[in-house]
Amino acid sequence: MNQEGLRKDWDTYFMDIAYMVSTRSQCSRRHVGSVLVQGKKLLGTAYNGAPMGVPDCSEAGCMIVEEYELKQTEGQEEMVKKQRCIRTIHAEQNLLLFTDRIDREGSTVYVTDQPCWTCANMLANSGVKEIVYHRGYPKDSEKVQQLMQHKGLLFRCLSGYQPPEQTLMNVIS
């Protein structure tokens, strides 16, 4: 809220919208919402889910695959197992699919969750200048932060933010 306590600041306002958008998701593992903003103008919204017209995870079950990634930690190589659902198109991917490049140039994306590696790569090439997220995504966090720094994109977490109560769900890592 601002000094008078009457209005939310812009970050809170747009993140609230991203969380409301996330309630459209049928994913049982994680509801993610994203919004595209140019200045203070909302240009698009998207959430994670199966492609249009295809049964989603709530109807057909998750399509979980396991992947292994070689990770360097303090000079030691470690094989890390990761699981992900391949039925779902991520909120950031849907946002990019359903917005125009010209609208994305110099814009900001608000997303409920820190982007995964694939979404971070797509956002880095999308024309946006800033990505604002709330919940972390530890599986890809370090390399995503390095990518954003290398690309010169503003990348920030709203750590003190509190989502609207009716948008909360238990997140499965």
UniProtKB/TrEMBL annotation:
Keywords noted in UniProt: Hydrolase, Metal-binding, Zinc
Keyword set includes Hydrolase: yes
One MF term in the entry's GO annotations: dCMP deaminase activity
Pfam family, one: dCMP_cyt_deam_1
Residue positions binding Zn(2+): 90, 116, 119
Catalytic residues in the record: 92 (proton donor)
Gene3D superfamilies, alphabetized: Cytidine Deaminase, domain 2 (3.40.140.10)
Family: Belongs to the cytidine and deoxycytidylate deaminase family.
The protein's name: Deaminase
Natural source organism: Paenibacillus abyssi
